[in-house]
Amino acid sequence: MSYTKRNDGRKFDEIRPIEAEAGVIKSADGSARFKIGKTVAFATVRGPREMFPRFMKNPKRGVLRVHYQMMPFSGVGDRIRPGPNRRAKEISMVTANAFSEVIDLESYPNSVIDVFIDIPQADAGTRCAGISAAAIALADAGIPMKEMIGSVAVGKVGDKLAVDLDYSEEAYEGGAADIPVAITSRTKKVSLLQMDGDVTREELNELLEKAKVSCAQINDIQKKALKDKYEVKK
Amino acid sequence: MTSKLLIKDKDIVVPGEDLAQGMDFLPSAGSYRDGDAIVSQLMGMVRVDGKVIKIIPLTGTYIPKRNDTIVGQISDLTYSAWSIKTFSAYQAMMSMKEATSEYIEKGADLTKLYDIGDYIVIKITNVTSQKLIDVTMKGPGLRKLREGRIVKVNSNKVPRIIGKQGSMVGIVKQYTNTQITVGQNGIVWIYGEDAKMENLAEKTIRKIEAEAHTSGLTDKIEAWLKKEVAQ
Amino acid sequence: MIINQEMKNHIIKALKKDLRFDGRKKEEFRDIKVEYDVAGSAEGSAKVTIGDTIVMAGIKLGMEKPYPDTPNEGMLMVNAEFMPMASPDFESGPPSIASIELARVVDRGIRESKSIDVKDLCIEPKEKAWSVGIDIITINDGGNLMDAAGLAALAALKSATFPKLNKDGSVDYKEKTDKKLPLVKEPIMVTVHMIGEELIVDPISREEKCSDARLSVSAIDDKTMCAMQKSGEKALTTEQVDKMVKLAFEKSKELRKRL
Question: Which structural domain, as residue segments, surrounds residue B38?
Fold first, then answer.
């Protein structure tokens, strides 16, 4: 089956329109809202703060803990029962790992940095939106990071390689491959990579190059969101 | 290759932003070297001092430091010590010895001195590498806080709120006729006989916090206070 | 922050002069903002902002078998999540008693007022009826989550529309219709707090922590209330209850204008 034109008219290398804002949750140490197409992610950072349960304390460095959750009304279709399920726990883990390359927690022994990622509206690419939001929120919380991280889901829809798949493309009748990727902003390393679907080695390499370009675009938007909050308003 | 700066002094930068190129420059707090480049590690304001590039953090929770005077809150007590909430990631401990110069009998009721929930002005005497914190109440200005209100501000803005030799907070105290204690940990205590004036003091402190990195702020705040008090 | 008695007395002293720490009077609400359709995947949604407090509510409609004891009626469920994103005091894990209380009080306001005509939700007696799931999600706790939640739930209900019902009885969530929920009454919840002997509405966090008792009142019009809940440790005299109810009615009129 041939997917010649994208459902929403985008080019195959084009990411959906993005809105990003830092500091949206006043009671938090850092926070962000990241909207890409119809997918919306809130990221809230609380910490460094005292670690509970106590046995999880690390005397050498702080611990980064991610809690990913979809709101009950976030999906088209049935209500999602609240509370962490296995999918959410896995996403929480790979998200925390995505940041471990760049984040420096040696100044915070015995403490925890909690990152809450909450999705009020989902149209595919939720874990990627969550990572992009979390990077802004961590910077907003003053957590030292060597680089920022951007994330996007690339893949194949039918026979065409595409970036930033939406839900209709993930569910494409002719088959689709969904590849969430996270790329560090300076050194362009891959800190998150997951896949389901069929792709060849060549296709993967090509998609990773496309992901680098898209994530660099996301980095620019993240930078602007932070500067909009912190720059002196004349 | 020739060294060059990619940013200007006092620019606002994000983590991972390239600040300078070349081996002539030296990274300092909040920045690091990656090969040829000096890179920011923090959300903050970049300061260039000759060849040294550092980042002043604009955000982030308080990191306890020795000799800081902070406002803490008693969270627990044992028979010989108090646990103190420092509004950071770490608790502090105050032994009986450091609580007062007066003699306390063994087995005495410590809550008579400082009870859970009390706010106290204390000085940090030691911070270990594991971030265990010791504090003392023995010293000028260190005391239990009584009636008043507690306001939380960004601890990174505290130097600006206090001002050079207390000049900024002094203006606020003067015009609103209030007592104000600003802890290095961002906890501020305000007391005034007149609640309206206390409100104005809080409002002013929030204004200083919001405009902390503008220049000429002291004069601006004084002029603003003059207007507000006149109403 | 664990509040202490001296700081609380300081708040009460100012309240006696009808002055609060953010400059408001005792009976004044902060700025209120209501936004609709904030979660596009839901059948109805709203976001209410009161000062710094932000609460979202979303409605999910499903097709289920009616309960055996009410074969001609649809179902209604109200759930509230005190998300850790909203406050350093909220933890992940099973719902706290505070979030359960909030959900049940909002639920009572909607259910007992018979705001939704549940008979109108029935498609086929004993077999098929719509179930209305209201989820209240706290986004930021700046005080008074209760009233923000009540308002968000009502706003979401008002704006909700049914998804398309196919001929074979299945639900097509991708197609929305114009048909609104059978909402016959609109309960507005207002919570009055007592600090010392002073009565206030819409507390900020530091005031809420000093609250000795509170009374949440759901009003369906200017004279009639349909649900109430007293919370907090202090007991109220009947005069105090009457004063609080009167104040709640006054304020519900103002809030009603916001929708």
Answer: 4-57
Does this complex have an ipTM over 0.90?
A: yes
- B137 contacts B72 by C-beta, under 8 angstroms: no
Task: Say whether both B50 and B81 belong to one domain.
Answer: no
State pTM to two decimals: 0.95
Measured CA to CA, the distance from residue C66 to residue C72 in angstroms comes to: 7
Does residue B8 fall inside a structural domain?
A: yes
Output b/e per residue, A15-28; b: 16+ Cβ within 10 A: bbebebbbbbbebb
Per-residue pLDDT in tens (0 to 9) along chain C, 259 residues? 566 899 999 999 999 999 999 999 999 999 999 999 999 999 999 999 999 999 999 999 999 999 999 999 999 999 999 999 999 999 888 888 999 999 999 999 998 888 999 999 999 999 999 999 999 999 999 999 999 999 999 999 999 999 999 888 889 998 889 999 999 999 999 999 999 999 999 999 999 999 999 999 999 998 999 999 999 999 999 999 999 999 999 999 999 998 8
CATH number at residue B92: 2.40.50.140
Q: What superfamily in CATH does domain C14-256 come from?
A: GHMP Kinase, N-terminal domain (3.30.230.70)
Q: Is residue A159 part of a domain?
A: yes
Pick from B9, B34, B36, B61 the residue to mutate for testing the A interface (most A CBs within 10 Å).
B61
C2 touches chain B (CB under 8 A): yes
3-state SS assignment for residue B84: strand
C-chain CB neighbours of B203 within 8 Å are 23
Name subunits touching C (3+ CB pairs < 8 A): A, B
Which residues is A152 bridged to in the sheet? A181
> CB distance C10–B149 less than 8 Å?
yes
In Å, how far are A98, A222, C152, C253 from C229, measured between CA atoms? 46, 45, 19, 19
CB pairs under 8 A between A and C: 91
